[in-house]
Amino acid sequence: MSKTLFDKIWDSHIVKKQNGYPDAIYIDTHFIHEVTSPQAFDGLRKRNIPVFRTKNTVATADHNVPTKNQHLPIKDAISKFQVDKLTENTKEYGIELYGLCHEFQGIVHVIGPELGITQPGMTIVCGDSHTSTHGAFGTVAFGIGTSEVEMTLATQCILQYKPKTMKIEINGILGKGVLSKDIVLYVIAKISAAGGTGYFIEFCGSAITALSMEARMTICNMSIEMGARGGLIAPDQKTFDYMKGRKFAPEGETRTKAMAYWKTLFTDSDATFDKTYTFQAEDIQPMITYGTNPGMGVGITDKLPSENEVSSSELLSFKKSLDYMGLKAGQEMVGKNIDYVFIGSCTNSRIEDLRIVADFVKGKQKASDVEVWIVPGSKLVEKQAKAEGIDKILAAAGMELREPGCSACLGMNEDKVPAGKYSVSTSNRNFEGRQGPGARTFLVSPLTAALAAITGKVDDVRKYV
């Protein structure tokens, strides 16, 4: 029987299946952090249940950590409490923790791939919606709630109804200045922030296979922003090459056996999907969001929709979003002054992203009235950036390479955008207050963000590259 890649992985991990009930799925790797794990550990403690497979659980501190002076005690009381709790819980239950100042500490969805923990064909969960990032390696990876974190800790399994399948195929060659972030923002703008609800998406096509692994991670990271349960991309030689030599990736004969399995991980040619979309790469320009969900995006030179172009069912939320953002229907985004630039998050904080930024800002100076936060996704990314002199390039441009963490993605730490200020951000969400109470967020690629840091306004990067 022909199967999609998703079906192959899901079906091979079913522990128990019964009609009318969710499948019991075995989980290969469970990532945890300080925000969604404390209540789960309390649940285990109250029922006197151990963690079933500690070696399959990986912990790191990322959401609440400061991105400066990490060697000092955390100042924010709530953040300190959560990070301390993670330390206590992992010690009590015998789980490996990559805490602050550990050489492997970083954003949970950055460290998994770079350490070789994430491997093709796996099932992966975490109490974080952007667990879909790991799907770039041909994994079934998705976010779960706190009660499900407890379930996974206790049993290494999870109860889930099987999602429907969607194929998003993107063919052609990307234009200059267009990155993977622009691809996914374009797709979300086309199908809406709810267009993938109920589906697990496979991204494919010549434009996808041409992407680097880190660019593919950006695509899968934001599959959740179109409402999908997750997204994945079939592994190929780029995947295998990326994994070679990484800390926990298989080596020698073990790698040979693993490769034999990994090479079976593709969608059969005659397999069918529940829904399919096809796009052309040549139609995609640098993108920017203007509203309060990732589906409210336009090409950088396009005007915002007029009220006549918005459906009656969406008109009220459209007006509310523009009012919050201080924008008007039909206006242009190019030339809009901004106050903050954030380059980081589990979407765009890898070494490739920092290289793109450094290459663009080299020999230039940031705008004097713009605050710029550049935050690596992990200690390994930070170390590599310094080895390549990226920190010095940024410093010469008036910017600072900070220390790893989720930072200004979600306003749970010290890096918050003040109310009413405009932020150009490489993160994944532009919800009201996401980057701080009253903050106004434009989502863009690292290249468009780098340009905004230099000019102090929204502009079309294609004029400069």
Descriptive account of the structure:
With 465 residues, the protein is an alpha/beta fold. Helix 2 crosses helix 5. The protein has 15 helices and 18 strands. It has two domains: 284 residues, Aconitase, domain 3; 177 residues, Aconitase, domain 3 (2-Layer Sandwich). The strands form five sheets. It has a five-stranded parallel β-sheet with strand order 5-4-3-6-7. Strands 11-10-9-12 form a four-stranded parallel β-sheet. Strands 16-15-17-18 form a four-stranded parallel β-sheet, covered by helices on one side.
List keywords for this structure.
Aconitase, domain 3; 15 helices; 2 domains; 465 residues; 18 strands; alpha/beta; five-stranded parallel sheet
Mean pLDDT: 97
Q: Helix/strand/pairing class, anyone?
A: alpha/beta
Q: Report the C-alpha radius of gyration, rounded.
A: 21 Å
Q: Main beta sheet, described? A: 5 strands, parallel
> CATH topology of the largest domain, what is it called?
Aconitase, domain 3
- The CATH first-level class of the largest domain comes to Alpha Beta
Count, helices:
15
Cα(first) to Cα(last) distance is 48 Å
Question: How is this fold's topology laid out?
Answer:
Blueprint: H1 5-12, E1 14-16, E2 23-26, E3 29-32, H2 38-47, E4 57-60, H3 77-93, E5 96-98, H4 108-114, E6 123-126, E7 140-143, H5 146-155, E8 157-160, E9 164-171, H6 180-191, E10 199-204, H7 206-209, H8 213-221, E11 230-232, H9 237-243, H10 252-262, E12 275-280, E13 287-289, E14 297-299, H11 312-325, E15 340-343, H12 351-361, E16 371-374, H13 379-387, H14 390-396, E17 422-425, E18 440-443, H15 446-455
Helix pairs in contact: 2-5, 6-8, 12-14, 12-15
